[in-house]
Amino acid sequence: MQKKNFYWMLAAILVCGASVFTSCSSNDDNPAQPNLNVAEKIIGKWMVAEIEDQPCPTNWKTVLTFESPTKAYGSLSDYYSLSWNVRVLADVTIDGNKVSVINEDGNTKNVLDCTILSITDTEMLMSSDWNVYVDGQSVQHEVYGKERYVRITNDYKDAILGTWEGHSTGAEGSEFDDGENHRWEYLADGTFRYYHKVDGQWQMSDDVLHDYFVDGTLLCTRWKNVGEGQQENREWWEIESIENDVMKWKALRMREDGSTYTATFEMTKVQ
Questions:
Q1: Is residue 4 in a domain?
Q2: What is the largest CA-CA distance in the chain?
Q3: Where are the alpha helices (DSSP H) in the chain?
Q4: Per-residue pLDDT reduced to its tens digit, 214-267
Q5: pLDDT in tens, 160-214
Q6: Are residues 177 and 128 in the same domain?
Q7: Which of 261, 248, 260 is nearest to 219 (CA)?
Q8: How far is it, in rounded angstroms, from Cα 136 to Cα 89?
Q9: Domain coverage including residue 212
Q10: pTM across the whole model
Q11: CB of 47 within 8 A of CB of 150?
Q12: DSSP label at 70?
């Protein structure tokens, strides 16, 4: 079955499929605390920070926003399923410490049943079950271990608009960066323009795909260069700050051997 238009598929693939961290556990291993006032405290924007007590790489992160006790939306960019979900809406039901997030797309229904283990003004710990139904029949079930979410109070989707110039500042660089200055122009329609210098003049890259979205502090981009045989590329960053016409990014990257490092990027706004 092709899973689409639902952002929790990333957690299902990575937590339960890739075995990067420990194996999934039952919700019964993590009994919820009573009287957490979940319906009130959960309102706001959350981003996953840890999976099974291990830091979550930036390329795996999702953002979940509860607008009310009955409505939520989520954002995800995922290599594995080629999902590109920007603020996908879902219905919510809350019963004590149990939270169900439900998304329906045609005859497919995705249900994420969460047990909130603890919740404060700044972070939330949960375990969850994910079920997929097609025509009312269960076709997939995943049981997740502990996931820690942090509350996001900034949303840079408007502040990023405009043209920026900069380069990687981390010791290990960035996967798609050559160390030279480049320019990115972020447009309000969810596309961006990439510029590099040719003979001292800024030249826009002739890409056939150039999309981005910002949800909270998470910046996701995808692009594909013109030409036969070119593949789609994706990159995720966390925006640390945008102030005084300076934008700073960071990202926790994972190497093939499982070790991690932090990449950083800094750019200034072009007036």
A1: no
A2: 66
A3: 9-11, 38-41
A4: 999 999 999 998 888 889 999 999 999 999 999 999 999 998 898 999 999 999
A5: 999 999 999 987 767 787 778 999 999 999 999 999 999 999 999 989 999 999 9
A6: no
A7: 248
A8: 20
A9: 162-269
A10: 0.84
A11: yes
A12: S
